[in-house]
Amino acid sequence: MTQWWYNHKTGEVEEGPQSLGSDRDGPYESREEAARAPEIARERAAAWNADPDDD
Is 35 part of a structural domain of the chain? Predict the structure, then answer.
């Protein structure tokens, strides 16, 4: 199964882990999902910030 990564430094989607772990987010199951990595991260951050159990 191919895994996809989003490289935060370059803004590019990578097939397989090609760059340093600190520069990428993933793995994702599809190229399209990896391309949405910044949006997914914002959604998760908003959900965590809204979590009332986070006190």
Answer: yes
Domain span at residue 24? 4-49
Look up residue 11 and give its DSSP letter.
-
Is 33 contained in some domain?
yes
55 within a domain of the structure (yes/no)? no
- What is the pLDDT, as a whole number, of residue 53? 72
- In whole angstroms, give the CA distance from residue 21 to residue 39: 19
- C-alpha to C-alpha distance for 34 and 17, rounded to whole angstroms: 12
**Sheet bearing 13-15, strands edge to edge:** 13-15, 4-7, 24-28
Structural domains in the chain (count): 1
The model's pLDDT over 4-50, given as tens digits with 9 standing for 90+, comes to 999 999 999 999 989 999 999 999 999 999 999 999 999 999 998 88
